[in-house]
Amino acid sequence: MSSKGPINELYHIRSLDEAQERIEYLHSLIEASKAINSTLDLVHLLQIILKIAVDRTHAETGTIYVVDEEKNEIWSKVTHDDEEIEFRLPVGEGIAGYVAQSGRTLNIKDAYSHSRFDAQFDKKSGFRTRCMLCMPMRDANEKIIGVFQIINKRKGFFSTADEEFLAGLSVHAALAIDKAELHQKAVENMAIEREMQLAADIQQHLLPATLPQVDNYEFSAMNLPAKAIGGDYYDFMPIDTEKIWFTVADVAGKGI
């Protein structure tokens, strides 16, 4: 009985530690979810996700990439001197591009020894990349919608616990990014609709409000665009009591 006591006690303490770690992990995800869902601005959202990922993994810096399926690229934006700078990378190129393509997690302890690592940024900035955790950001359906690239663990190397946290963060981040992208598209569509409505108003004002009155002739005209605005145009110009010039045209190009 006495020999089992210390073992059971040790096991009990380990269980408590694991339970505490799990509670802290879940609490971190809950707080992260609250922060992530606080904005619909995509660039600001990416900054929030990156800060959470960097802080929770105790890293020095990092980058969040978003997959652009139409262009087969991954992209990210950074703010420098109050100016947003976007940079893109083909899927499959570099470490982040490879992760986006393969879906594999790369936990690299020595970045300079990895064949896909590009040291150009380090050479230009003076920054030294030591270790890196690069892993796919997946939605609830396991679809890759982005990439975490977290750089330089402040003490030691990135752990499986760091990987687990980022994997848990992925679903919350993916939902928020999807919502932000839908919102951005809706805003862009509204802007396009306003522009097209303005163009339609201008077009209607360019068309003659009244038609010429000429003995023995009857004029009629109608402009009915298939959408908000069309390319058709007509006008009349009386020259004298016996002559009228008129034009019918199809305007090339779209928009205002």
Report the end-to-end length measured between terminal Cα atoms.
88 Å
How helix-rich are the residues, as a percent range? 40-55%
What global shape is seen? elongated
Let me know the average pLDDT.
Answer: 82
Neighbour order of strands in the largest sheet: 3-2-1-6-5-4
Structural class: alpha+beta
Instruction: Determine the number of helices (DSSP H or I, runs of at least 4 residues).
Output: 5
- Radius of gyration of CA atoms, rounded to a whole number: 30 Å
Bin the strand percentage. Answer: 15-25%
> Count of DSSP E strands?
8
- Main sheet attributes: strand count, strand direction, barrel closure: 6 strands, antiparallel
What string, H for helix and E for strand, traces the elements in order? HHEEEHEHEEHEE
Task: State the low-pLDDT regions, or none.
Answer: 1-13
Summarize the structure.
The protein has 256 residues and is α+β, with helices and mostly antiparallel strands. 43% of the residues lie in helices and 23% in strands. A six-stranded antiparallel β-sheet has the order 3-2-1-6-5-4, sandwiched between helices. Strands 7-8 form a two-stranded antiparallel sheet.
